[in-house]
Specification:
The structure holds three protein chains of three kinds. By secondary structure, chain A is an alpha/beta fold. Chain A is built from ten helices and ten strands. Chain A is 39% helix and 25% strand. A six-stranded mixed beta sheet of chain A has the order 6-7-8-3-9-10, with helices on both faces. Chain A has a four-stranded antiparallel beta sheet with strand order 2-1-4-5, with helices on one face. Chain A starts with a strand and ends with a helix. Chain B is an all-alpha fold. Chain B has one domain. Chain B is built from 13 helices and no strands. The chains are: A alpha/beta, B mainly alpha, C mainly alpha.
């Protein structure tokens, strides 16, 4: 147990619109936090700020105590952050398996020297990566589509692949952006199971979700955001039951 | 016989240029017109190192390749730091600017060209030996690009082209990859330049102009981007055409523009009616293992 | 120390000759701002403009005003064709940046080679002579070309400014530049605005080439070199900033001309590439002048409230 991700005093506005208003947040190892709120509350923007896609106006983000502020997006991922996208963003020219293989924490094939002079190292890495990928795909019920092109899959399965890809980095902190949107049936149960497992293995997980049942069943605590600010924290049941928050959520 | 040898050498070198440009623009997704300038840098550097600095030719050739490589990284590093679009503009400036320098500076021989480049192999082993050298280099480059494209690096290049933001989100560094791709491709162009210099023993700035840029681009686009054999087909086609045209005995003032019209016209036609080129690429990336299995 | 007369002379000449640079830069910058396209085919338009005027004057022996009219008509037709047959088709296909680049580059090269074939590769000017009577103002030589050139340029810029500021179409152009999809929601035809932009750029290119071609020699590849100048000015001036591009063009023009004081003339051309390179390294965002898109600000603010989910997913 311990603080994995720490956000302090994060502020950001885009031309007059405040997307983050003095946001303080802590994600702890082994816990799943649900980030809820109406559209436009700044939830995805917060993920963008934490991961480094967008630069904040002020505030800091730290992973395992080390500040991430000077690091670029891909460098933060390399440090142990991982995120999914609201609109999936898989690589259409690659198969499901290849989408996962490209997402390992270390990828020796990224350096041309390794390709030219380090064939053994590549082979070893490839073996381990394939085992890992096959394992992840199996746990998510995607084993039978490993060689399919992602563009051939239905949307729900694509979302699952997106999460599977995010798991390949064995991240300390996982940010999932609406993983359940468009997912139904057996995939729903698989997603819940996988997220729980990841948390149990020690990762700190934060999920943006509109699917109330998912949030209630899975999340250890909830955070309610509105207009860029954190309005309330507590157990998910408390937040869902609060009439004022409900009005903010639906009234908007 | 000499004429045929020269033709084979030229075609081989242009295959190297097309294949290496395919690496940059096809697999790397980098838009640049600055390929001929690296061809030139390799040629001139090797020529100067061997003739004026008395380096043995093989070392000079390596030197030429290294100069092209270094120059390409010097170009790509600041440009890509901004964006891919900037590389395009910078490449235009670099291509035209460096040629301006070559034309105006004394130690390159200026516009009249650089003469008396030391020969290599031919005096001792005959012309055929050099032709074999060039063909070996050509084959080497073709298979090198193919190998890279099918390796884990190829998987990364494919993903990078698909979605750079998602690429970063899985922890990969697109910028360094682009610089490496640009460097390798341009370095190979420099190697071709060095090979050119020591066969024909005479280089002029005219051989490295915008016309050659258009020609190489045409070879890759018409031949088929992101394929092993597309650039080969493209290069063969576009080197064969001028030879065919030469038989028409047109005056040089007409021949040049007609060649140019042919190149650019071909690209435009292909872009509208067959953008995938003569040798179509597969939509999906397949690694070496999968490619073997699918056969 | 240098003779102040020489300095003033160089300053005056470079300001006068900056006139066509400004026109080319504004054309390029405007198209980039509104259509978000790096229009390398502008070189083709410029080449067509020059040779149209050349043909009118030297082959058909038309008077200057008729030649100018013919040149403008030809250039506008070419711009129309480029936009409707070329760019529109590419937009419909949703092609990549590379595709557009290859297309515009190849179009410029194609036109260059055509010009080489038809007109040969030796330098030409629009009028048989490029010498203009010179009057001395104080000790400064003022060519009869200078004032009309500067006047025409200022006039064109003023017209453009007034058009963009006060006419509906001009304001629509700013709207489309700012947010094309939002502008469409307001019933503005993107298609029509893109065409108008290309036509204006064509007109500026034509005027620019008329000025250049009556004062200096032109080769088929001159269009490309001049256009590079426009590109450098656009980058330094700030992408999206047409006024910035104009100012940058003047400054670069003055520097290039004034450089004769320190370097030999054969190297002056090379300066351009240095500018380009420096522009890219040091000014990727350009020297920003305050720019305020007027049209859609209020509407945009109103819509953002409703649009928040879209804004969120784009952020």
């Amino acid at each position: 147990m311990g603080e994995v991700l720490t956000v302090r005093g994060l502020n950001k506005s885009f031309g007059g619109i405040v997307v983050a208003r003095n946001v303080d947040l802590t994600l702890q190892s082994g816990r799943v936090v649900g980030l809820i709120g109406p559209n436009g509350a700044g939830k995805t923007s917060l993920f963008n700020l934490i991961s480094g896609v967008v630069k904040p106006d002020s505030g800091t983000v730290s992973l395992d105590g080390a500040p991430l502020d000077r690091l670029k997006f891909h460098q933060r991922i390399h440090r142990g952050l991982s995120r999914t996208w609201q609109h999936v963003r898989l690589f259409p020219s690659l198969s499901v398996l290849d989408n996962l293989l490209i997402a390992t924490r270390e990828y020796p094939g990224e350096r041309i020297v390794n390709v030219l002079f380090g064939r053994r190292r590549l082979k070893e890495h490839d073996k381990v990566a394939r085992e890992q990928a096959t394992d992840v795909l199996g746990r998510m019920g995607l084993a039978n589509v490993a060689d399919a092109l992602v563009t051939d899959l239905p949307y729900g399965q694509q979302k699952l692949v997106g999460v599977a890809r995010a798991l390949m980095g064995e991240a300390k902190c996982l940010l999932l952006d609406e993983p359940m949107a468009g997912v139904e049936g057996a995939s729903y149960a698989a997603m819940q199971r996988v997220v729980r497992e990841v948390a149990d293995r020690g990762a700190a997980v934060c999920v943006v979700e509109h699917n109330v049942a998912f949030v209630r069943d899975l999340c250890d605590e909830g955070i309610f955001m509105f207009a860029g600010a954190i309005m309330a924290r507590g157990s998910v049941a408390e937040l869902i039951g609060d009439p004022q928050l409900t009005e903010l959520y639906f009234g908007h | 016989m000499d004429y045929l040898d020269g033709l084979i050498v030229i075609v081989g070198l242009y295959v190297i240029l097309a294949a290496s440009f395919n690496l940059i623009i096809g697999y790397g997704g980098l838009v640049s017109i600055a390929h001929p300038v690296f061809f030139a840098l390799g040629a001139y550097a090797s020529a100067i190192l061997s003739r004026d600095l008395a380096l043995p030719v093989p070392l000079a050739m390596l030197g030429g390749t290294a100069v092209a490589l270094a120059a390409s990284i010097a170009l790509a590093l600041p440009s890509l730091r901004v964006s891919g679009d900037y590389l395009l503009i910078a490449s235009i400036g670099f291509q035209l600017g460096v040629l301006e320098v070559i034309k105006n500076v004394r130690f390159t021989g200026g516009s009249s060209g650089f003469i008396n480049i030391p020969p290599f192999l031919i005096r001792d082993f005959g012309r055929t030996s050099y032709v074999v050298l060039v063909l070996a280099a050509t084959a080497g480059v073709i298979f090198l690009v193919r190998w890279i494209a099918r390796s884990d690096y190829g998987r990364a290049m494919s993903a990078m082209r698909d979605d750079e933001l998602a690429f970063a989100s899985v922890g990969r560094n697109a910028m360094w990859m682009k610089i490496a791709i640009f460097g390798l491709g341009s370095g190979l162009a420099g190697l071709a330049g060095a090979l050119y210099a020591h066969y024909f023993r005479f280089v002029t700035p005219e051989q490295f102009e915008l016309l050659q840029s258009a020609a190489i681009l045409t070879m890759v686009v018409v031949g088929g981007m992101r394929t092993t054999w597309g650039p080969v087909v493209g290069a063969l086609l576009l080197e064969a055409l001028p030879q065919a045209l030469a038989f028409l005995n047109l005056p040089p003032s007409v021949l040049g523009p007609i060649q140019g019209l042919l190149f650019t016209g071909l690209v435009l036609v292909f872009m509208f009616f067959r953008p995938q080129g003569l040798v179509p690429a597969q939509d999906a990336w397949r690694g070496a293992r999968a490619a073997k299995e699918s056969r | 120390m240098l003779d102040p007369t020489i300095i003033l002379q160089i300053l005056w000449t470079s300001l006068a000759t900056a006139s066509y640079y400004v026109l080319f830069a504004v054309a390029f910058a405007l198209v980039l701002k509104v259509t978000r396209l790096f229009n390398f085919a502008q070189a083709a338009i410029m080449t067509i403009a020059f040779y149209a005027a050349f043909v009118a004057v030297q082959w058909l022996a038309w008077p200057a005003w008729a030649a100018f009219a013919a040149m403008t008509a030809t250039t506008l037709t070419a711009s129309f064709a480029l936009e409707r047959i070329g760019f529109e088709a590419l937009r419909k296909r949703g092609v990549s940046v590379m595709f557009v680049f290859v297309f515009t580059f190849m179009v410029s090269e194609f036109v260059d080679y055509l010009a080489m074939l038809i007109f040969g590769t030796w330098p030409q000017t629009i009028f048989p002579t490029m010498f203009w009577p010179v009057t001395l103002v104080g000790n400064i030589a003022v060519s009869a070309w200078d004032l009309p050139a500067v006047g025409a340029t200022i006039g064109a810029l003023a017209l453009l400014f007034a058009f963009m500021r006060f006419s509906r179409v001009g304001q629509f152009m700013t709207g489309v530049a700012d947010n094309p999809d939002l502008a469409e929601l307001y019933g503005i035809s993107k298609r029509r605005i893109f065409l108008v932009t290309m036509l204006i750029a064509g007109a500026f290119s034509a005027l620019g080439m008329f000025l250049y071609g009556t004062r200096a020699q032109v080769l088929p590849q001159t269009g490309l070199s001049l256009m590079l100048f426009a590109v450098a000015a656009t980058i330094i001036g700030g992408i999206g900033n047409v006024a910035g591009a104009a100012i940058a063009a003047v400054i670069l023009g003055v520097i290039q001309n004034a450089s004769i004081l320190v370097i030999s003339s054969e190297w002056q051309g090379f300066l351009l590439y240095i500018f380009l390179f420096l522009a890219i390294i040091f000014f990727p965002k350009g020297l920003r002048l305050p720019q305020r898109p007027r049209f859609v600000t209020a509407a945009r603010d109103a819509l953002i409230e409703q649009d928040a989910p879209a804004a969120e997913s784009k952020a």
